[in-house]
Amino acid sequence: MAKYETLAAVHIVDQELGAAVFDALTKRLLVVSFGRSSADSSIQTFVKQAMPDAVLYPESNSTIKCAIPIDKDEFEFALGEQRITRVNAGAAESTRGLLREEALVEPDFAHSHRASVGCAGAIIGYLEAKHAGDLDGAVAVVWELENHMEVDQETLSYLHVFDERRHPNMHSQSKRRETTSLFTLLNKTRSAAGHDLLRKWVLCPLQALPEIHERQEAVSVLLLEKFAATLKDIQQTLSKARSVRAACLRIRTELHLVDLESLAQFSYVVIKLHQLVSSMGPVPRLIQELLTLDQSAFVALGCMIIDTVDFDASRAEERVVVAANASTSVDRLREQFDGLEDILSAASVDMEAAAGVPVTAVYFPQLGFLSSIDVSHFWREAGAEPRLGGWTLKFQTDKQRYYKNHITNDLDLSPGDVFSQLNDAEAEVLLALQGRICAHIPEIARAAELVAQLDCLQSLAAAAALHGYCRPEIDRGGCHHIVQGRHPVIESCSAQGFIANDAHLPGAGCTHDFPQAEAARRALVIVGPNASGKSVLAKQTALVVYMAHVGGYVPATRAVVGLTDRIAAMGRASESLAQRQSALSADLKAVAGILARAGPSSLVLLDEFGRGTSPTDGLALLCGALAQLTAGAEGQPACVAVTHFQGTAGALACAAPVAFWGEATNRLWRRIEVTSVRRIRGIWHKARVVAMQSRDGADGPVHLFR
Prior knowledge:
By secondary structure, this protein is α/β, with parallel strands linked by helices. The strands form seven sheets. The chain has a six-stranded mixed beta sheet with strand order 5-4-1-2-3-6, sandwiched between helices. A six-stranded parallel beta sheet has the order 7-19-20-21-17-23, sandwiched between helices. A hairpin with a 3-residue loop joins strand 12 (about 390-395) and strand 13 (about 400-405). Helix 2 crosses helix 4 (about 115-130) and helix 11 (about 255-280) packs antiparallel against helix 13 (about 295-310). The model is unreliable at about 95-100, about 645-655 and about 665-705 (pLDDT under 50). It holds the Pfam family MutS_III.
């Protein structure tokens, strides 16, 4: 059995991140294609997405959980290409189990993803040396991460998508606990497998529009009023589903009672879910896929396990016990074993008459039948000693002597070593059961994936129903229009209610009918004092976009979300003595990376950029960043920037085409002229205020968050 259910390998070659993942259950070796330039991709982010049990790395790395350092030569491209070719040479049968979106690794792909191919070769080499049997029937396929939105660790942390904290118990510091976050809000899963898959869904938002629509369609059907009772039954059934991944891996080498119980229970869950989905009539493909499972196969699997194993007796004896009527040979031998007491009693009478002293017939497994005589009978007067002609002493203890004679020899022939025969017969029955279960493992693995998928879909539906979310419209033109949007996490924690807000970031040639968006621009600057809710509005805008790409509903009354390839945020101050950089230096580095990679389909968040230096320089840095982000007429990314002025609220007006939103009864408009052109990592350095004008606000105070 494999030591690890999921094994990954990562390596950086010429600033290109390569990765591969091996699933020991499905026998799939996933060779990762990052699509876009992966020079700045985060190893930690990928490890969180893949969720491996261990990671192969060409050198020791304390930042990677369960990292296994191996020789760097194992990551060579040529070696990896040879090993993948060898694995896929016998993959004709394995390709039958491939998922719809998977494709075999071809030479053209291999040469354009050299780092990932090298990682796949490292995994194959490691398994050949440690667990060669795991590669039987394996197949190397492509895992295209370019079909997913790119979100770095800084953005995940800024948006509180996950918020893991160490366990407060000092004896459980290795454990993590999930505090209030977007994931905990969406996580209404009922099974362990569903929990793990939803975590991957949230970590890997989709970018392919058809897949997003498929998830939305499935969620919308589950939310229909006519399926309310069916959804409740589905949730109750899913809560009974046990994780079978580890069970399927262990059962290839040995049988454990807990694994057999899990598989029997899982068979029931699959059968019940099949019936519930069938009763719904026509449903979207993601739900309909469950009906492609062979229900009769799981009926046979469940009945086979239940009819073969006596679970009550197994728990009592702490071993797997064959059930009655499962095997005629086991039943016959069990009946003989139960009748041994009568046979031993009769033999004791016959041997006592022959020996002239009390004799007890006993049975020891493997040793057979013996006669037992107390040693005190051998210290009597002459003529009173036992008559043991033809008896052979086998061994003795301090109190007993054990002999073989013609009576025990006859019993050794019939009934014979009953206990050993019974164990052999049970082992033969259980070995046959093990073989039949192993034959079902590919279908069990596929069923586990589909059950977990259904669990994720019902979880998204349950969260949408509980919090009153709406179905977003996905726009290919990159337009973002959010009406009465809410921050999902803060809303769930707020006892006084949440003040909803609109946000409009139209794309080029936007044709959506939103009257409030007439004066909107591709970049939005939110101004106001501390604790006025500026960051909340920026985060909720990004979270609505993020949730839409997960495939679920969003916290708004109406939302049009543009198809987004990247969300990049500069939010948290991050000084680092270890890296010898100040908070300002860290912010400059982060924004420089954002500006270098932001494209027309990206969403950029700048939260208080320019802090940590003088107000003039900070304002200039923000203006320079906005100017560069809004430089292109059609290729500019959507941008939400947050800033404030000391002592007064206002809105920043610069040469860049941006919209402003402030919280004040008096709004200050500042026109900024960028002068003294000097760059720091591509960002303008200095600016000066050349004009200032104020006016009274007509609408009164605007509360972004209370």
